[in-house]
Amino acid sequence: MDSSSSSSAAGLGSVDPQLQHFIKVETQKQRFQQLVHQMTELCWEKCMDKPGPKLDSRAEACFVNCVERFIDTSQFILNRLEQTQKSKPVFSESLSD
Amino acid sequence: MEGGFGSDFGSSGGGKLDPGLIMEQVKVQIAVANAQELLQRMTDKCFRKCIGKPGGSLDNSEQKCIAMCMDRYMDAWNTVSRAYNSRLQRERANM
């Protein structure tokens, strides 16, 4: 993501380093925000029954666990794919680009 | 969203780009995009929760449900944001 943004920016000629830094920071912030949107939607399905007058502690704990386990799942999958790729590559090169 | 910037995007005459102006406009665009994202997901979720059988009008109990659902969705969003943020902090500390 970072390499693509800098390579496409290079097409504009000399890019203001301040602007480059701004883009990098905003891209990271936006990735964070996007994942928050996604996890809120996902965990809402798992943790919300009927919306009450306030978010009760049970639901809140469920949301926190949901976020933690979602990230765990993502990391687990990434690690396992890495492991299986090392021992016996199942993906052809066409999939890796 | 298309063409929102117009042709005067970040330029202060003479075709020279003003980084400060670009950053300002990008920030506004990001805020708008995030608000739209939230609005769209919130509408979807609260419609599912509150509108069982779509009737002739949005009745009183449905409106109450939607209002409550909106507030809880915001709570959920903030809880998720905090949880994700603290996870990132923890992982950064462990590196």
User: Overall pLDDT of chain A, averaged?
Assistant: 84
CATH homologous superfamily of chain B? Mitochondrial import inner membrane translocase subunit tim13 like domains
Number of helices of chain A: 4
CATH class of chain A: Mainly Alpha
- Any idea what the CATH architecture of chain B is? Orthogonal Bundle
Please trace the helix and strand order of chain B, writing H or E for each element. Answer: HH
How confident overall, as mean pLDDT of chain B?
87
What's the CATH H-level superfamily name of chain A? Mitochondrial import inner membrane translocase subunit tim13 like domains
Integer tally of domains of chain B? 1
Q: What percent of residues of chain B adopt helix (DSSP H or I)?
A: 55-70%
The two chains with the largest interface, and their residue counts, are: A-B, 34 and 30 residues
N-to-C series of helices and strands of chain A: HHHH
General form of chain A = flat
The radius of gyration over CA of chain A amounts to 20 Å
Report on the architecture of this protein.
The complex is a heterodimer of chains A (97) and B (95). By secondary structure, chain A is an all-alpha fold. Chain A has one domain (2-96): Orthogonal Bundle (Helix Hairpins). In chain A, 76% of the residues lie in helices and 0% in strands. Chain A contains four helices and no strands. Chain A has helices spanning 2-9, 17-47, 57-87, 93-96. Chain A is flat, with a radius of gyration of 20 Å. Residues 1-10 of chain A have low confidence and may be disordered. Chain B is mainly alpha-helical and 95 residues long. Chain B has a single domain (19-93), classed as Helix Hairpins (Orthogonal Bundle). Chain B has two helices and no strands. Chain B has helices spanning 19-50, 60-93. The interface between A and B is medium-sized, with 34 and 30 residues.
